[in-house]
Amino acid sequence: MINVIGLGYIGLPTALMFASHGVAVIGTDCNKKLIAQYQAGILSFEEKGLSELFKTACNAGIRFSCECQRSEIYIIAVPTPYDKNSKKIDASYVVNAIKEVIDICPDEAIIVVESTVAPGTIDKFVRPLVDSKNVNLVHAPERIIPGNMMFELVNNSRTIGVDDHTVGSKIKDLYAIFCKGDIIVTDIRTAEMTKVVENTYRDINIAYANELAKICRFDNLDVYEIIRIANKHPRVNILNPGPGVGGHCISVDPWFLVGDHPGLANIILAARKINDSMPEFVLERIYIIMQANGMKDITKVGLYGLTYKENVCDVRESPTLQMIDCMKKHLANGIKVYDPYVKDDIVENQYHNFESFLYDVDMVVILVAHDEIKQNINKLQGKILLDTCNILPCDGIYKL
Ligand code: SAJ
Predict the structure, then answer these.
(1) Distance between CA atoms of residues 278 and 391, nearest Å
(2) Residue 198 C-alpha to ligand 1 middle, in angstroms?
(3) Cα–chain-centroid distance for residue 304?
(4) 3-state secondary structure of 324
(5) Is the distance from the beta carbon of residue 11 to the nearest atom of ligand 1 less than 6 Å?
(6) Rounded to 5, what percent of the chain is helix, strand, coil?
């Protein structure tokens, strides 16, 4: 049996995937409300293909509980935030999960940490906790992208970091039950570093696109046309500029390298700063555009999109929230906000109906390229538009 600990964006799909492939699974989480919800057959977030997988896993007998269970294999998928001041990992969720496991697990149990961790975390925080017991540690960092999780869970390559190759083979065979991608077995420190390096690579490349957007704005050039042409070169592949980098991964993991290697992680730090500066850059664009159109009232501006990217409901570290924080510092209140994926009221002046939102604003700032807005471009007629995602045809539209 596998006990998957932490049933959020990664733990839940992983638990469901194993269960629907015939493995006995118990999913546990300290959040009682979440467990009650799963036991009642209700999902906590939306993701393409998730509800079908949930049904299959429930029919296959997956169980949910608040208490960790005695089991031969544990998969830990709990959050790993970073301390905003020191930039170092806050490993407390991982540490607490390991402590719970150690209290109940049998001898020779295998504990797989899937949570992304700062390189060195397993040696520094986890190993000392398990030393008293005869267990095997594994680090198998998740790699799936929100928005396409089900496909990537099955098709992506995986990394399995181990101390012992017999354990490596066993865990490789376990993931191979559903994973069609290559499964590479390596040591734990390499697996830790590889995962953080992957997300940092993407952060740096997005930062390059964002810096180009700023340079092109200054020089009055069309950054999208420049990127389009540059990308025709066989060895150039510039990413898309945007209103900033959100989510719990790309905007967090590079800080682990900066926090642990001050003075060495220079490009990484610069990239983080550029990406973090984008919400404020958009805010400045809003003020310039308002001025150019004789608009004085910020309450007539509407922000479209609150999530960290398109077609997901996750708002963690989202550029829109970063921008709203920035506005609060400037004491600019009353801007209107709408997102079809965010059902709860999480900010002031939030709308839950697209039409009423549009009715109440003169200017719309597109911050997330949800399918909804792409399919309703005609409804934006007559509005002043700032499109930070480059989804609208260029004529008469303001861009980054
Ligand atoms: N973004 C841009 N321009 C781009 C691409 C993305 O501004 O060209 C922005 C997005 O709008 C978003 C942020 O970057 O705000 C991050 O989005 P993303 O789609 O690039 O990545 P995540 O955070 O959803 O998922 C990443 C993935 N990592 C890589 O692609 C290297 C995923 O595979 C990881 O599993 C995930 O982090 C994770 O959990 O670590």
Answers:
(1) 18
(2) 10
(3) 19
(4) helix
(5) no
(6) 45, 15, 45
Distance CA 301, CA 351 (A): 13
What is the token pair recorded at 305?
């999109």
Calpha distance 301→383 (Å, rounded): 10
* Nearest atom of ligand 1 to the alpha carbon of 198: 31
Give CB contacts under 8 A, 24+ apart, made by 95-98: 95/125, 95/126, 95/129, 97/5, 97/6, 97/68, 98/126, 98/129, 98/130
pTM of the model: 0.95
CA 84 from centroid of its chain's CA atoms: 17
145 DSSP assignment? P
- Identify which of 78, 117, 119 has the alpha carbon closest to the alpha carbon of residue 97: 78
Q: Rounded to the nearest whole angstrom, what is the distance from the C-alpha of residue 203 to the centroid of ligand 1?
A: 8
pLDDT of residue 103: 94
Which of 76, 172, 165, 71 is closest to 129 using CA atoms? Answer: 76
Tokens 């469901």 -> residue: 16
- pLDDT tens digits for 255-289? 999 999 999 999 999 999 999 999 999 999 999 99
The CA-based angle 36-142-195, given to 5 degrees, is: 145
pLDDT (tens digit, 9 = 90+) per residue, 298-340?
999 999 999 999 999 999 999 999 999 998 887 778 999 999 9
